[in-house]
Each structure stands twice: as C-alpha cells, then as structure tokens.
Design goal:
Shape: elongated
Structural class: mainly alpha
Largest sheet: 3 strands, antiparallel
Number of helices: 5
Strand order of the largest sheet: 1-2-3
Strand content: 5-15%
Order of helices and strands: EHHHEEHH
Number of strands: 3
C-alpha cells in the first residue's frame, strides 16, 4: 500500500561543534576552556540534550556554520548554510520523526497488526513535528 508518506532524512555536512564551542569560550568568556572540558567531551552521546543545554547557556551565533541540504529538493540541490545552532535541535527532531515515518511506511498494512503498528509509528512524527 504505497499511499503513506515516508519523509526523507535531513542531511547536514560534517561540522565541528566541539571546536566552535571551544573557540567561543576562549574568545568570548573569561573562563578557561578546561572548566568546560567534560561538557564538550560529552557532546556526541547525548547530542540533542546537549544542544538544548548549549542554546540555553550560549548565544546562538558562535561562528558555527552548519550546511543543510533541502529535504524535498532534487539530489543536486545547493545546501543552505545557517549560522549558529538554533536550528540544529529542530533538525534532530525532524530526523527522529523521519525515522518513525519510514518505519510506518514500511509496515505491512494488509493486516490488523501492521495497521496498528503503522498508526503507532505515525503518531511519533506528528508529535515531534508539533514540538
């Protein structure tokens, strides 16, 4: 049943968030970077939670440029470069919603169990997109 939509993933180019945060701390604050070393080291495992924390503590523009490809554009599209990381937590939630929408679209909806699972999977992206 191809009448359900699986949303494509939002793609970003590689960016060094750790280096940008470190450079901002060195250049814009009186604190030494060692005071933040543990926080910077843990950026990867809890990425979304750390982004929310950083956005609350630092200004959104710390000379960090993240290039995103448009989700619904044809493959040779030009990426959009955004400065700062105010958009990045939303992009993480978008990709989480994408994962669940693709799981829902892949379910066999010919039987009752598959239809229930697909409906359940589609509820996650709808609530993520509202956030």
């Amino acid at each position: 049943m191809p009448n359900h939509l699986g949303i494509p993933f939002k793609k970003a180019n590689a960016t060094s968030v750790r280096a940008s945060v470190r450079d901002y701390i060195l250049g814009q604050t009186e604190d030494h970077v060692d005071a933040y070393r543990a926080d910077i080291a843990h950026l990867r495992p809890r990425y979304h939670a750390q982004l929310v924390f950083i956005v609350a503590k630092l200004p959104s523009d710390i000379n960090l440029e993240i290039a995103y490809s448009h989700v619904f554009a044809p493959p040779p599209s030009i990426p959009i470069t955004l400065r700062g990381f105010a958009f990045e937590p939303a992009a993480v939630l978008f990709n989480l919603a994408t994962l669940y929408s693709q799981r829902a679209a892949a379910e066999d909806r010919a039987n009752q169990g598959g239809l229930k699972r697909a409906s359940s999977y589609y509820q996650v992206p709808s609530s993520s997109m509202m956030f």
